[in-house]
Design goal:
Layout: H1 2-15, H2 23-46, H3 53-60, H4 62-83, H5 86-108, H6 119-139, H7 145-168, H8 170-176, H9 181-185, H10 187-211, H11 216-236, H12 246-253
Helix pairs in contact: 1-2, 1-6, 2-3, 2-4, 2-6, 5-6, 6-7, 7-10, 7-11, 7-12, 10-11
Length: about 260
């Protein structure tokens, strides 16, 4: 949730828009609902026998978590209707329907390991769209190519971070019978894909750093470059981050870095 606010803050800065104050409440609550719903759905597969702790935790506490989630969802909906523009509400509803349809698919077809049910990609799309949808609407036109690269980088990094987590959770996902990018493509191929992907993002970002004026967008590009380097470092040297869930802690913390543009 804090990472969402950090990226959201960077989005408003690079687009030079003033966000509706209530949006800062709606944004993190919406993200929490999506991620929590994902964990609850996953938890029902193995219930108390789940190897992955977060799934077991969500199943054991499913009733209290569901009550909080319903309250949060209702509050988010009311605040959206009362304070956000109609167009943003419509776009939000469309995004919610897409997410709901996806969750329905993974719930009813959870035994099928299909590339079309790859949750890391879907969640990355929902995450990035949810953050940048309102700022882009307030901006009102097509942003510069450098801004588009920043948005693209955030999407790719959210996707890669999810894939990285699946790489480290591979054995537990196998035991619990979950589908992930790594399950679909294998550990070796997944690691090679991530390393190559991070290298491509670094090259693209450096090119745009060279041609971008020395302004807020330049610093945003630099921040995404650092985020990319940190995530890439984890997958290049995985054994150094495997213990105590350091890969997960650092992977999540990386998305706090966009708040650094507050100093620009």
């Amino acid at each position: 949730m804090l990472g969402t606010l950090a990226v959201g803050y960077m989005a408003t800065r690079i687009l030079h828009v003033s966000a509706n104050p209530i949006w800062w409440i709606i944004l993190p609550m919406s993200v929490w609902i999506v991620y929590t719903l994902d964990h609850i759905i996953d938890s029902y597969k193995n219930k108390t026998e789940a190897v992955i702790y977060r799934h077991k935790f969500h199943y054991l506490n499913r009733k209290s978590i569901s009550i909080v989630m319903i309250f949060t969802g209702t509050t988010t909906l009311i605040l959206s209707v009362l304070f956000l523009d109609t167009q943003i509400i419509i776009l939000g509803i469309l995004l919610s329907l897409v997410i709901a349809f996806y969750f329905a698919l993974i719930f009813f077809f959870k035994q099928k390991r299909s590339i079309f049910l790859q949750k890391e990609l879907i969640i990355a799309i929902a995450y990035t769209t949810g953050i940048f949808m309102a700022p882009l609407y307030w901006y009102g036109s097509l942003p510069s190519f450098s801004v588009i690269v920043v948005i693209f980088n955030i999407f790719i990094l959210a996707w890669f971070e999810g894939i990285m987590i699946s790489w480290f959770d591979y054995d537990n996902d196998i035991k619990d019978g979950h589908t992930s990018f790594t399950i679909l493509f294998g550990k070796r191929n997944t690691r090679q894909f991530l390393i190559l992907g991070h290298m491509i993002i670094e090259i693209i970002t450096i090119i745009f750093l060279v041609i971008t004026p020395f302004n807020i967008v330049f610093w945003a590009l630099l921040v995404t470059l650092v985020m990319n380097l940190l995530l890439g470092f984890i997958i290049i040297f995985p054994h150094s981050f495997a213990q105590n869930n350091y890969y997960r802690i650092i992977g999540e913390t990386v998305f706090l870095l966009p708040v650094l543009v507050v100093f620009v």
